[in-house]
Specification:
Helices cover 42% and strands 26% of the residues. By secondary structure, the chain is an alpha/beta fold.
Length: 359
């Protein structure tokens, strides 16, 4: 078989680019039609269950050489732009720009919506609840440091539902104006400082540790301090113009954070879902054991269970539970009905597609 010249290859690539642009615009035109139908039927523009099925379909039909992860990144932006031409979305997240929550929001929603970094988790919830923004992204738990208390606090009372989860591997960098030997103060979010505790003790044992609202705000502080450094993301060094003195400084290489998307509405079952619930038991011996019985009898896997003290009521607890399955599925629905009879309080926080780990 005759080898192609570079000019021939470039000509074929140009032809393919033309076909891709034409097909993308044809797809966009179909998205506009879909948006009109959704509005007429009162359907949501953002549908994480539908998007999860799209990514599953793409994985099934991909034959390479393009890697599945790369194809996913491309289609994330295609879906993002398709949503945006149907109806503009705005996303609030714990910020500022280049914080890990901000990166999680971009990773999930793409770069077409307005992503608005906010100073606190409470502010994110407030803006979604008052419908100033379409959805909110907040951290839920970290594999090393556990749950984020401010998020759990708001989940107890919010009328919003968990619509999706984003599971992201967290890799921390030390960012500074100068070299490591010049650092006297390390700024970062409390969880980031805790996740790098051993590395800091070995490499910067005399440095003062200063807690900040987020890793990105820590980078801003370090930029103003010639003897300061921040623990933050690689992209924060590019955004704020600081040197990356060291990377991969987290103590656990499997360090992962789970973020949740909060909003109104609810997602349809995909066949690979989670449901998050919150319940309280009567203050009586064996109450928790009785509450967990329906899950065992139904053969439902509990992915996470965490006790949470009730404010103002000493030694009484609520329980946050993640379970496999969707609340609309008969097995789960029947189990939750039985659970309700054995609890003093039950709230379904949301059913949503299981998230894949993002790098």
């Amino acid at each position: 078989m005759r080898k192609k010249s570079m000019n021939t290859i470039r000509k074929e690539i140009r032809e393919k680019d033309g076909q891709i642009v034409r097909l993308l615009n044809e797809r966009a035109a179909l998205s506009l039609e879909a948006g009109k139908v959704k509005r007429r039927l009162g359907m949501e523009i953002y549908d994480p269950s539908r998007e999860s099925r799209v990514f599953g379909y793409l994985a099934d039909i991909n034959r390479g050489p393009l890697a599945g992860e790369a194809l996913g990144h491309i289609y994330r932006e295609i879906l993002s732009s398709s949503r945006q031409i149907q109806a503009p979305l705005s996303i609030a997240c714990l910020g500022p720009e280049s914080s890990f929550t901000h990166l999680a929001a971009l990773c999930h929603f793409g770069r077409s919506p307005r992503v608005l970094p906010r100073r606190s988790i409470g502010q994110v919830f407030d803006e979604v609840e008052s419908q100033k923004v379409s959805y909110g992204v907040v951290p839920m738990e970290n594999s090393v440091e556990g749950s984020v208390k401010h998020t759990l606090d708001r989940l107890i009372d919010t009328p919003l539902r968990i619509r999706a989860e984003i599971v992201m591997k967290i890799s921390h960098c030390l960012l500074s104006r100068g070299g490591k030997g010049n650092v006297r103060t390390v700024y970062s979010h409390p969880q980031a400082l805790a996740q790098c505790r051993t590395w800091i003790a070995r490499n910067l044992p005399r440095a003062e540790l200063v807690e900040t609202d987020s890793t990105a705000s820590a980078v801003v502080r370090a930029r103003e301090d010639r003897r300061g450094a921040a623990i933050g993301s690689r992209i924060a060094s590019e955004t704020y113009g600081l040197r990356m003195v060291a990377e991969g400084i987290e103590d656990h290489p499997t360090n992962t954070t789970r973020f949740i998307v909060m909003g109104g509405g609810q997602s349809e079952p995909t066949g690979d879902d989670k449901t998050s619930i919150l319940f309280g038991t009567p203050h009586a011996p064996g109450a928790l054991h009785a509450a967990l019985g329906p899950f065992s009898r139904a053969g439902i896997n509990l992915l996470r269970i965490e006790s949470y003290p009730i404010r103002g009521r000493m030694w009484e607890y609520l329980f946050f539970v993640d379970l496999a399955g969707h609340a609309a599925e008969k097995k789960v629905r029947d189990c939750l009905r039985r659970l309700e009879r054995k609890t003093a309080f039950l709230k379904v926080l949301g059913s949503y597609p299981k998230g894949d780990e993002r790098g």
